[in-house]
Amino acid sequence: MKIKPPCPYAFSLVGRLTLHYTLASFLILLVGSVLMYLGLIESFARRNDNYLDAQVKLIGQLVQKGDQDALKREVLYEHSPVEYISHYERVLDEGNRVLLETPSVWKELPPELFNAATAKGNKKVQRFADGNLYELKSAWFPLASGEKRLVQVALEISQVEKIRADYRNELIAVLLMGVLLCGGAGIYIARRNLASLRDISDTARRITVSNLDERICNASLPKELQELARAFDGMLDRLKDSFESLSEYSANLAHELRTPISILMGEAEVALNRPRSAEEYRQVIESELEECQHLTRLIESLLFLARFDRNEIELKPEDIDVCALVQGIWEYYSPLVEEHGIVFNCTGDALLTADRELLHRALGNLLHNAIVYNDKGGKVTVAIRQLEDRSVEISLGDTGCGIPPETLPRIFDRLYRNDRSKQLSPMWPGLVLPIAKAIMELHGATITVDSEPGRGTTFNLRFPPPVA
């Protein structure tokens, strides 16, 4: 399988976490800074409006009272800066003649600039040739004589604008500095919290075939990484089991191949040791042919399992009368049955959709085992049952020696044989049951076994209903 090379432009996990953390921090700081800036502007605007309204109201009250001295003091002399703003006033009659105004600065603010909008209570901000910024307001006040006076008030808010500009620049500087600090903190936090991943990587690099017992998961890992570590440890457990199984499989295979080859070589050496008659040579050839057949069965079985592992076996399903198939297999083994004096009983019937050749091989392997490992004069029973959903159950039992409990979990391991199987069936390698299980899995079926030493063994096969 072709492995795709890693992307040279891929970000590291630390880089991604830092980038996301920095972007999130930038957005939070940006929103906070904008809200603070808007809040400051709103506060200044509200304060300026209140101050301007209060000043207009004060001048209007002095005009209505006719207190000229207080009015002159307020308009002519009390126009110095108050906190951060300066105010300027003017009083006009109905003919727009100036009755009283703050000196000097009003040349920059002629009466015409105060339009009808300011008289209705609205404010107007203008920037003029002197470079200053003003907020304007005007209002009419009636006198007791029936006349009216127009009061115009201006606030110089240039200093307010400077404060706002300085505050904006400071916020931008704080925002940039905050982003840099958040980026640095993000790198530190990401590296510190991803140290566990580096530990996992270091441990994984140390693990080889010789130390598959080493594990990664420990209590110091974060909860999320513990799940990853447990999954990795589970993979190591499976790898360890696979390596042990492969090692044992290789040893058993070497033994199975060595035995017939040793026999072939030994018989050939004996035959060539001295001149022999044609009959003796014939016996040697027949014996070697038997060993060659043993090797052929072994190789064919290994090839079948290899093709099964690579999913190269293609099923050829057809409708099969299970009882007739079992009867045919039993008749094939009739010489062996007569030798052992086995009684056979087949009950039930079912129509099964499966690959005839493979099903014949699986049932043949199980029936052969039931004969070989049975007692003299024993019994083999096959019970066939078709359920309502058209699934099929086949139960195949014998009254033989049974399987010891300690070896029962391993009977489907490839090339595994206990002492009893080597004694009763020396010419059959431990591939009979693994092949039967592989054929069942190809059909989506299951195979289970119940056994009790001295009372026999029963294999239970369950085939799923056919796909519509």
Q: What does this entry look like structurally?
A:
- With 468 residues, the protein is of the alpha+beta class.
- The protein folds into 3 domains: 14-166, 2-Layer Sandwich (Beta-Lactamase), CATH 3.30.450.20; 223-309, Helix Hairpins, CATH 1.10.287; 317-463, Histidine kinase-like ATPase, C-terminal domain (Heat Shock Protein 90, 2-Layer Sandwich), CATH 3.30.565.10.
- The protein is 53% helix and 17% strand.
- The longest helix is centred in the first third of the chain and has 53 residues, at 13-65.
- It is rod-shaped.
- 20% of the residues are buried.
- Mean pLDDT is 81; it is low at 422-427.
Main beta sheet: 5 strands, antiparallel
CATH architecture of the largest domain: 2-Layer Sandwich
CATH class of the largest domain: Alpha Beta
Radius of gyration in whole Å, from Cα?
Answer: 51 Å
Spatial strand order of the main sheet: 2-1-5-4-3
CATH topology-level fold name of the largest domain = Beta-Lactamase
CATH superfamily of the largest domain: PAS domain
- How many DSSP-defined strands? 12
Strand content: 15-25%
Specify the overall morphology: rod-shaped
Estimate percent helicity.
Answer: 40-55%
Count of structural domains = 3
User: How many helix segments?
Assistant: 12
User: Helix- and strand-based class?
Assistant: alpha+beta
Distance between the termini: 35 Å
Low-pLDDT residue spans: 422-427
